[in-house]
Design brief:
Helix content: 25-40%
Shape: globular
Radius of gyration: 29 Å
CATH superfamily of the largest domain: Chloramphenicol acetyltransferase-like domain
Largest sheet: 7 strands, mixed
CATH architecture of the largest domain: 2-Layer Sandwich
Structural class: alpha+beta
Distance between the termini: 55 Å
CATH topology of the largest domain: Chloramphenicol Acetyltransferase
CATH class of the largest domain: Alpha Beta
Strand content: 15-25%
Number of helices: 12
Length: 515
């Protein structure tokens, strides 16, 4: 049997093979770990789905593996299954020919909707004279529909396009025919932003020069999510068809940028290549983006694009908190517990969230409703050698400060050494991001979407303040709250911040949590 790389977590589409735990010829048992694969969040152990003998391993350490690709073949005593190391393609008759006008001074984005030929269309499955090798007629959906309505048999038409594709002028070389198809093309367009014809032709001449792309609808959808321009991809499938593996290879080579959700002028500007002269006086090192860095980049960008973010800040006098931590720190260190300020802050945040439920909510835009969560899973942004990861302290409302401190230390350690599990970084309701004691005083964190708020924690500094009518040195920390203005108004954010501040300055409630 073929064992394919399974979907190991929400949003995971690929992973890097870190290590094989078996080799070809080994006998394995069901649920035995056969490989370790690094995703954008963690290193995941992959168990075997059956007992048997390893016949073949299809990847080596360091390779990027897409979900759905065959990892290994296993002889489990049954009839051998033909091995295919590619994602199953959809029938070619559902292929849409996407056409992109050659670059012009004022670029236009045209987004068309796929039209899938129905079974009553004539000869859509016959071997085409224009493309005998494909076993299928290649033509745009609009041309198929027009041919059906006019009782035109496409199998009798010789296509002059790439791979034998039937073009407009192959059906009829009169202006009337071309204009009729143009009108249908507009009907099937979701958005047409242009002041000039999309398709032009003359009675005696062919249409304009186009770049033609073969890809299945699911591949096109994935390309849109990845921000990849299909006209720049060389397909490795039949007849040059672009398959999902081509998108992964293109994305890893950094040939494309996310432009599909940007305005035309912005998309055009950032998609231009960066030209530089590498001389002895201007050394430049080119480093490919890692998978996790690409994911971080996309999620941060999506967060900014999907929410109305603003930030409020306040200074908190944590002089008494510093004294309390110093008092208890040594005793707990003897028990192996590292009592950090972050544990105190996390508990203060949970107590404040219970009073301000909208800060612990999510917006369900599709159904126009709010999801107010009465559980408190606090994500702790953690700096790791691979990039920022956010392990989550689940059900923080049921844990005291000591328990939170122990869990934060454990999660952070395993996030850094890549042994943390995927489910330990999912289902957060609110995130805290701390600069630690060695960096800046304050910053404006970006929301961990789809959450609606994030707390930024600066380092503790000593500064002169007016306290009880006198200027004295006090320990001050700057807290920042970035919130989504669609759910959390400025006044509510300020009230939340004030409650967090009160809990940290008046330790009565927090010190009870040390027991």
């Amino acid at each position: 049997m073929d064992f394919k790389f399974p979907d190991v977590g929400e949003g995971i589409t690929e992973g890097k093979l870190v290590k094989w735990h078996v080799k070809e010829g080994d006998s394995i048992k069901s649920e035995q770990t056969v490989a370790s694969i690094e995703t954008d969040k963690a290193v995941v152990d992959i168990p075997s789905p059956t007992s048997g003998v390893v016949e073949k391993l299809f990847f080596k350490s360091g390779d990027v593996v897409e979900v759905g690709k065959v990892l290994m073949s296993i002889n489990n005593g049954g009839a051998p299954t033909p091995v295919s190391n590619s994602v199953k393609q959809e029938p070619v008759r559902n292929v849409v020919i996407e056409k992109k006008i050659e670059p012009v001074s004022n670029p236009v984005i045209v987004q068309t909707q796929s039209y899938i030929p129905q079974n009553n269309y004539p000869n859509t499955n016959n071997v085409s004279n224009n493309n005998p090798n494909s076993g299928t007629i290649l033509a745009m959906p609009q041309i198929r529909k027009f041919a059906h309505e006019k009782n035109i048999d496409l199998s009798n038409i010789h296509g002059s396009g790439a791979h034998g594709q039937i073009l407009l002028n192959d059906i009829g070389n009169t202006t009337g025919t071309v204009q009729a198809i143009q009108r249908q093309t507009t009907t099937f367009s979701q958005t047409v932003q242009t002041s000039r014809p999309i398709i032009t032709s003359t009675a005696n001449g062919p249409i304009q020069s186009f770049n033609e792309v073969l890809a299945t609808p699911s591949t096109r959808m994935l390309a849109r999510k990845m921000g990849i321009d299909l006209t720049k991809i060389k397909g490795s499938g039949d007849n040059g068809m672009i398959i999902k593996g081509d998108l992964t290879r293109s994305n890893s080579s950094q040939e494309n940028v996310v432009t599909s959700i940007l305005p035309v002028n912005v998309a055009t500007r950032i998609s231009a290549p960066i030209n530089f002269t590498n001389t002895q006086t201007t050394p430049i090192e080119i480093v490919p983006m890692s998978t996790i860095r690409q994911i971080i980049s996309k999620r941060m960008f999506d967060s900014i694009q999907s929410t109305a973010q603003y930030t409020v800040m306040d200074e908190v006098d944590v002089t008494e908190l510093v004294k309390a931590r110093e008092k208890y720190k040594e005793a707990y260190e003897k028990q192996g517990i590292k009592l950090t300020y972050l544990a105190f802050i996390t508990k203060a945040v949970v107590l404040a969230l219970q009073k301000h439920p909208y800060v612990n909510a999510t917006m369900d835009e599709a159904n126009k409703q709010l999801l107010i969560k009465h559980y408190y899973n606090i994500g702790i942004a953690t700096d790791t050698p691979d990039g920022l990861k956010v392990p989550v302290v689940k059900s923080s409302e049921h844990k005291n400060i000591l328990q939170i401190a122990i869990e934060i230390a454990d999660l952070a350690s395993r996030a850094k050494n890549k042994t943390i599990k995927l489910d330990e970084m999912n289902d957060g309701t609110f995130t805290i991001s701390s600069l630690g004691n060695s960096f800046g005083q304050g910053f404006t964190p970006i929301i961990n979407y789809p959450e609606v708020a994030i707390m930024g924690v600066g380092r503790i500094i000593e500064k002169p303040v007016i306290f009880n009518g006198q200027i004295v040195p006090r320990k001050i920390i700057t807290l920042s709250l970035t919130a989504d203005h669609r759910l959390v108004d400025g006044a509510e954010a300020s009230r939340f911040m004030n409650d967090v501040k009160n809990y940290l300055e008046d330790l009565n409630a927090l010190l009870l949590e040390l027991s």
